[in-house]
Design goal:
Layout (H helix, E strand, L loop, with lengths): L15 E8 L4 H16 L5 H22 L5 E8 L3 E8 L19 H12 L2 E6 L5 E8 L5
Antiparallel strand pairs: 1-2, 2-3, 3-5, 4-5
Helix pairs in contact: 1-2, 2-3
């Protein structure tokens, strides 16, 4: 029940949830990044430039991980973008049951630090990230960032 003088809450015009699928192949990495970038621009999401760049790097890393490590059991992956009034969440879902962990920094290696990078970008922005299992036995790796980074 509304009290007199109150203004009903209106959803912000850029809020919503979008999901798309892609084959688990190398070319899907830049395509996913560009699709997310274009979606955010089209919706007019008020993202800080640093948050936007971090978010797009997270998308690239998560899709790369799905392509490199899950494609054998999951030939298709799904990318979801959820935008609220003050936050944005990206997730990548695949059907591979393996739950990855972030490796520690080893500067002698040329790869294998994608999830560490995702964790650090998320932490610096004041967000959160995690891995969840799906009902079908796969996993969703997600990262949520505030639209405006913490000071």
């Amino acid at each position: 029940m509304e009290s007199r003088g109150s203004v009903p809450a209106r959803p912000v015009p850029y809020a919503g949830v979008w999901r798309f699928t892609a084959p688990a192949v190398d070319v899907s990495v830049p395509q996913a990044r560009h699709a997310v970038r274009d979606l955010l621009k089209r919706q007019g999401v008020p993202l800080d430039d640093d948050v936007a760049e971090g978010l797009l790097l997270i998308v690239s890393e998560l899709v790369t991980n799905a392509v490199k490590h899950a494609a054998l059991l999951s030939p298709e992956l799904a990318v979801e973008v959820a935008v609220g009034e003050e936050w944005i969440r990206v997730s990548v879902e695949d059907n591979h049951p393996y739950r990855p962990t972030a490796l520690e920094t080893d500067y002698a290696q040329t790869g294998g630090r994608g999830l560490l990078l995702v964790r650090e970008i998320t932490r610096e922005a004041g967000g959160a990230c995690d891995v969840e299992h799906t009902a079908g036995g796969g996993k969703i790796i997600w990262a949520a960032l505030p639209l405006i980074p913490r000071p």
